[in-house]
Amino acid sequence: MVAIIVLLTSATAQKKINPGEVWPDDKGNHIQAHGGGIVKIDKYYYWYGEQRRQGLDTGLRYVSCYRSKDLASWQFMGDALQLSDPEHLGSNWVLERPKVYFNRKTKTYVMYFHLDDARYKLARVGVATSNKPEGPFTYRESFRPLEKESRDIGQFIDDDGTAYLVFESWPTKGFFIARLSDDYLKVEKEVCLINAPLEGGAIVHYKGLYYAIGSALTGWNPNPNKYATAKSLEGPWSEFKDIAPPETNTYSSQSTMMLKVEGTKDTTVIFMADQWKPKTQWDSRYLWMPLQTGDGKLWLPEPKPWSIDIKTGKVQF
Ligand code: DGJ
């Protein structure tokens, strides 16, 4: 009897994730981690993203840091990066889609972000580092990875620990998958160009297959996101297919990352996306849903509240 009660309690105790709703942090404020990425370091997940709360200094750009053990309750760790126009790009300069990697050898947290001018012509990545996950991060430099234009970036760490940057490039119209250097401070080697006009690139390795997701180029407006698969990161990649009924425009969202949770019973791949509100960015929402993945197929089910048990990897609706 006791065992049954304990089981029932643990099965019902998981906090729900409510796609598209206001998502309060530990202080009751809507989470500000837009265009974000997640990295797991020991027992914590760290979520970094664009800090867009109201009342910020309009000359600065901010990257927020949150941490969680269960992916549902998030503790605000503060603004990990506060940056004033590092390359003299002028008003409305852009810092978007920050991603953080932890380098175990150098014990350094390495942040990449899309750095641009108001017209998106600079097309570089910025790099900042810290010796603590919550920062403060110090700006180091900006460059065009592999000498190529780089706009939306995505982060992918393979099961063997190799770290990759995914970056959207023009005029090639596609996204590059590129390996980082040993210290993660440089973008070292082109692995592949997925030659399709996509941004918001995200990759996951699931049961022997790589899945890549991207969105079409429609600014802040949502569109039908698509996926392709490959046996190796180098490709060849399959043709792109819809991840959801196209008329829903990916349930009004845009991909930013896929997060794999490997539990004792199940492996769950979470689609992380932004529902942008360009005029009230601080109120932009998150659409996180477990994907139906396997055998070369990937599908985003209709969003509804769900929870995950991080230990077992099991999802409940
Ligand atoms: C789409 C990109 O994915 C976003 O990160 C942002 O750059 C908007 N375009 C700007 O229109």
UniProtKB/TrEMBL annotation:
<feature type="site" description="Important for catalytic activity, responsible for pKa modulation of the active site Glu and correct orientation of both the proton donor and substrate">
    <location>
        <position position="152"/>
    </location>
</feature>
<protein>
    <submittedName>
        <fullName>Family 43 glycosylhydrolase</fullName>
    </submittedName>
</protein>
<dbReference type="Pfam" id="PF04616">
    <property type="entry name" value="Glyco_hydro_43"/>
</dbReference>
<keyword id="KW-0326">Glycosidase</keyword>
<keyword id="KW-0378">Hydrolase</keyword>
<dbReference type="GO" id="GO:0005975">
    <property type="term" value="P:carbohydrate metabolic process"/>
</dbReference>
<comment type="similarity">
    <text>Belongs to the glycosyl hydrolase 43 family.</text>
</comment>
<dbReference type="InterPro" id="IPR006710">
    <property type="entry name" value="Glyco_hydro_43"/>
</dbReference>
<dbReference type="GO" id="GO:0004553">
    <property type="term" value="F:hydrolase activity, hydrolyzing O-glycosyl compounds"/>
</dbReference>
